[in-house]
Fold:
Amino acid sequence: MLLLNGLGAHHMMWAPLLRELEGATIVFDWPGLGKSPAPPLRSHTIDAFVRIVEELLEELQHAEVDVVGYSFGGIVAQHLAAARPDLVRRLVLVATSTGGGAAFGRPLAMAALSTPLRYYSKSYLAVTSRFTSGPTEREPEFVRHSAQLRQAHRPDVLAYYGQLIAANTSSSLRRLPAITQPTLVVHGSDDPIIPAANSCLLASRIPEARLLVTEREGHLLLHHEAGRAVVAINDFLMAREHRTSEPWRTGRAVTMAEAKRALRSADLRAAQPGGAMHVLVRRILSG
Structure:
């Protein structure tokens, strides 16, 4: 199992999921994050991040893997699965979006993510968690633990903004139908950063996909050991046949009409210039 992490995040933040997963896992830090050195100037594109993953798997001599893509890592995972169906057996997309054309997050949440300060300042994280987190992620003890974990490996600032640039200048919309792998799309119902409507869009466009929405959880749903998402991912990936796994049986297929309704509602709730641009991109790329 290959785990692709989120914006600014490092390998230690996978701990709750790693304690649940039963199979062998591959974790790594994107360049400039965690223990990986900051990269020289290079193209900040999603394809560049896909190449990093391909080179890693080639170096490790893995011919096929299951991929869990979380947040930013989920965007990379979509492009990887579409481009390299030979490399990806099953796909899990968690709290992620298409990049360009996505339903935009709430204004205050987007403003908080525009800087890596939450990895540097405990007080900044505490203040911004009020509008970047779901109900289960606002507990003082959780916020304190999250702050300590984030500050263990602060991201290189240029690497952080490189991820932001890559995510916002790419779109997987036209590549989603090419993802033929069994795909479990997991999202928290109360995610203010990447609204759950994005999961509907993904599940409706990927041919073999099921959607699992976890109630009262937010963007950090993988950071809770007791979270439903952590258990579901393990069940899906460890099942001999993916259709017999509980998350596949309890998850649901999403129609295009359902996705459009969810996106309209999310677009209205987060009306702002950035969101309007993403709506335009979605309309163009959706034909």
